[in-house]
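Bench notes, afternoon.
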Amino acid sequence: MAASADRVWDLVSDITRIGEFSPETFEAEWLGDATGPAVGARFRGVKGSAAAFLGITFLPFVIVIILGALYESYGDRPGVTGALLGVSASAAGMILAMAARIAQPLLSRRPGEALPVMILVFTAVALLNLPLLWVIAGAIPLSIGISWWRRG
């Protein structure tokens, strides 16, 4: 290559010119005060966002569709029913463990703000069987209001 290392670095590290060199990405921009590569610098691009979203969601989506099709065909068999009962108990345990793990730092830092909202949401969804979407739609502004009120 008939270019200095500094010139090559300038070209490949300038994400605003990435569309000139990559058929997959046509544009990108630095976020915040960043004007070039540095520790903590962030940038965004439309195709990169789409690729990240699909990378996270596509395979699980395919797996769920395949499992749903298999359940449709074999779900009424006694062995499958027993296995699914065991799996559902494990899944419920993992959900509770993850909820406790997420709640622990929040409760240790702001118990007066978090605990009432957690109790209210649990009561509404688990005990009163209210639709989760409506409960969350009410809990979000409630929790924001409590936070603003407590910080005065």
